[in-house]
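Per-record layout

source: Streptomyces pakalii
name: Decaprenylphospho-beta-D-erythro-pentofuranosid-2-ulose 2-reductase
length: 251
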Amino acid sequence: MKDAFGAPQSLLVLGGTSEIALATARRLIALRTRRVWLAGRPSPALDAAAAELRGRGAEVHTVDFDALDSASHEVTLGKVFAEGDIDVVLMAFGVLGDQARDEEEPMAAVRVAQTNYTGAVSAGLVCAGALQAQGHGSLVVLSSVAGERARRADFIYGSSKAGLDAFAQGLGDALQGTGVQVMVVRPGFVRTRATAGLPEQPLATGPEEVAEAIVTGLRRRSETVWVPGSLRVVMAALRHVPRPLFRRLPV
């Protein structure tokens, strides 16, 4: 449960090495979050992330989690919830893929879709059910502005995020009145290891800026968070640009 100051006391991160998720965890720990679960594939990076957060005063556990192994999600995540209530679940796993390669290798494209969408549907439903059973909590879904409209440059990744975004919105509607909040986060280009070497897009941000928006959104119980906020207006306009013209835009 949240403490007397309204801050979440426990956090489960799906995608435990995500730079955005770890930046968010640091901010929440500074606001009195004391128990953190980092779920991801076993790796030195996951262990290092856990050690770093422990150094900030939190009790941190790691759990083996594979987004592609949907059959394991109910058991794996069920064990986490069996340890006690979770105030916030941050679903932060995903892959960008390589558009040019993925167009030539359909199974690589399928892996992007299965990670970003199918795996998220499975994990999201398991966590939503557990949050509903405990009667409170927030599910934060890291979507992307890329899901707002398909672009030639990244339509495989964008389509997977479009599916995730629609799923999360519908799940939020389904959970109305249960005490469980679903918050969809739509960042634009974020400077991370995953985007290193890619041409930087307008209105680019960093993990810390996204983390700040997530924490603010949780406090306000927002349903949708754009990062930066100006993207809401930009995408409202781009959504209605005729396709022949949209194809020629440098977006």
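summary: Strands lie at 10-14, 35-40, 59-64, 88-91, 137-142, 180-187, 224-227. The chain has nine helices and seven strands.
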